[in-house]
Design goal:
Largest sheet: 6 strands, mixed
Keywords: Cytoplasmic vesicle, Endosome, Hydrolase, Lipid metabolism, Membrane
Family: Belongs to the inositol 1,4,5-trisphosphate 5-phosphatase type II family.
Distance between the termini: 53 Å
CATH architecture of one domain: 4-Layer Sandwich
Strand content: 15-25%
Radius of gyration: 30 Å
EC number: 3.1.3.36
Strand order of the largest sheet: 9-10-8-7-19-18
Pfam families: Exo_endo_phos2 (PF22669), INPP5B_PH (PF16776), OCRL-like_ASH (PF21310), RhoGAP (PF00620)
CATH superfamily of one domain: Endonuclease/exonuclease/phosphatase
Number of helices: 26
Organism: Enhydra lutris kenyoni
Number of strands: 28
Shape: globular
Amino acid sequence: MAITGDDVSLDQIVPVSRDFTLEEVSPDGELYILGSDVTVQLDTAELSLIFLLPFGSHTRMFLQEVARVCPGAPGRSPSRPSHSVGTRLQVPRRGSPELAEAGSSDFDDSWSDKRRPLMDPSSCAQDTPDSLLTRQNKSKCEITDMVRSSTIMVSDKAHILSMQKFGLRDTIVKSRLVQKEEDYTYIQNFRFFVGTYNVNGQSPKEGLRPWLSHGIPAPDVYCVGFQELDLSKEAFFFHDTPKEEEWFKAVSEGLHPDAKYAKVKLVRLVGIMLLLYVKQEHAAHISEVEAETVGTGIMGRMGNKGGVAIRFQFHNTNICVVNSHLAAHTEEYERRNQDYKDICSRMQFCQIDPGLPPLTISKHDVILWLGDLNYRIEELDVETVKNLIEEKDFQTLYAYDQLKTQMATKAVFEGFIEGELTFQPTYKYDTGSDDWDTSEKCRAPAWCDRVLWKGKNITQLSYQSHMGLKTSDHKPVSSVFDIGVKVVNEERYRKTLEEIVRSLDKMENANIPSVSLSKREFCFQNVKYMQLQVQSFTIHNGQVPCQFEFINKPDEKSYCKQWLNANPSRGFLLPDSDIEIELELFVNKTTATKLNSGEDKIEDILVLHLDRGKDYFLSVSGNYLPSCFGSPIHTLCYMREPILDLPLETIRELTLMPLQTEDDGVQLENPLGIPKELCLMVDYLYQNAVQQEDLFQQPGLRSEFEHIRDCLDTGMIESLSASNHSVAEALLLFLESLPEPVICYSTYHNCLECSGNYTASKQVISTLPTFHQNVFNYLMAFLRELLKKSAKNHLDENILASIFGSLLLRNPAGHQKPDMAEKKKAQEFIHLFLCNSS
């Protein structure tokens, strides 16, 4: 993870004075792995601090610069001005580094040349703060040597290009270096181990060396992924799990004993976890490390399904490793395809230079994709599948594999390669054995767990399962690769750089840049709620290198309205080159209400600015089809006709109508008690889905949501044909889109205060406007009906309270996101009404 200037704030300035020391320390009682986040101790006469810095080139550079300015450091001029170091680094976007006063934790007194064993927690408890007094500080010279050992050579172009630059000249240099990369790099093979294991919510019960290191030479890089790390409700709704540390330690102990490894990164989304390690000697050549997650569960966000990824630069090669857990069940292959596409489109990595657009998965030289992809074997009955496995006729069986079929039609993983499957399916086994599933469901065996790759200079050396591990109902899978990585030749790099600089000197006073645009007017017709529309145009550059950027218009905070996005929004063009820009229009809960009311329209002007050049103006227009999604509850109650059958002026008036209460004494003619759209969805579920397993937990299909939305907005409910999961998700999306939640913002804090008292909670509900009361009571009655069928649908009060608590009871607009305590109180509030009907 790279820290940029935007991430850091200063709470305190610590002068680099004569008594100043800064050294890396090793936390006692923890697994020590060289290359993990760096623990640093800072000491002065008045202050002693311990804090964490992220592994990567920025930390190495920071430590180097601090050592350089420390008193007594070699080469430091006595006349050099004094320096200061800012402490208490805060990184709000990706989690603040921990900070503790020295003495509150115990630390080891030296660096170890070996991977340290796991410590017995009881031994740590016996240590006292007094033991810290005996810690031997390294001398300033030793600190300087230690920091200098992390110096980045000029030949490390990955580092050079990651530094934030300013000005057109530097941008041109970086771009030309990328163009001429073959002139100063050569290909060197490195051994990669890629492993995936669905652990079915279990804790480690056996060593992992048979999977991670048995019978192979020590890999240079380990990419280890897990799925279903924790199946508890707490992990699903609150994202905390002790299983992360358990499996992290198990992996660290299972790495190849013939090498020392650095942990580069760990990323987890609920039960999906990915670990990246490299050999100690390669750690200095890893840079630009970023990790991201994408949830594809219910409402497109929940992390029970989805993907996590780590991208990094190894020497001069960009590598992205993705671990995914896609939708389950044999018939849900379309949902798996959709999950894959969502991960690809939504997984974006910030670049160190904020002037560059985010990187997607596809923008990497090498992509390694592992995980429980959940594709099954279809068209064969269970016994036929088992017989083919018994005969080891994997080639015949593979012909019926869904992933093979979907890849053949280019529905998913286009351009990816998978090795030959020469091992038996890895799912589903009775836990603790090699016996196929004997449960009531008797799942057919399937190759759920897979490893695929995409890129050049990649050779797969092995692809196998590991039957000896019996902790889970899945078997772990591994694949070993030789991957050709671009390594910089320092001398050739320096010559190439000199040539580029000389050529730039000749064109320093070049003409003003000029571009041509293939299109300047864009009309988006019949825009619908949560249905993406994309139009594109091409920028063709003339003979002068230029930087372009969409800029804000006067008195506006963004270059475009919230429902619009330009991708990329800024960039650089070499002479006589082109770039395609996509304008993406997407209306969601944030923007729908004002489009419904007419307060906003599909109209905007974009200003494309050229550095040292002129501005170009692009016109965006279109029409939005009003929707019940994003409309207030009371507005829908006064719409007896489908929203698309009403005149726009009527929709505008009803949407802008203020929320009425009983005390206002204001009543329009013949309102409905609750929105008809809500009734239609709830009634559909009551008639068809009260016994549906995993209701409100498994997502539906996007195409079916669009169909449901159109049926509700046109009133053609008789044509509604969708899965129960799609209707359930549409109901949740409807509740989420309400501009004023079912339990009004004004009562939010009152609800939290009385979350343990049913009588007081009922009193709060009685103060809601009538329409909101009706909707709340109607939903609670429906959910209680579902709970009566819990033996079939496997729902319980806690699951429903967690899901609906965050939708019905929302933090007032403009406030920060609720913390864990608030989420639990909201859950408790809804829980009261699920367990009490009077």
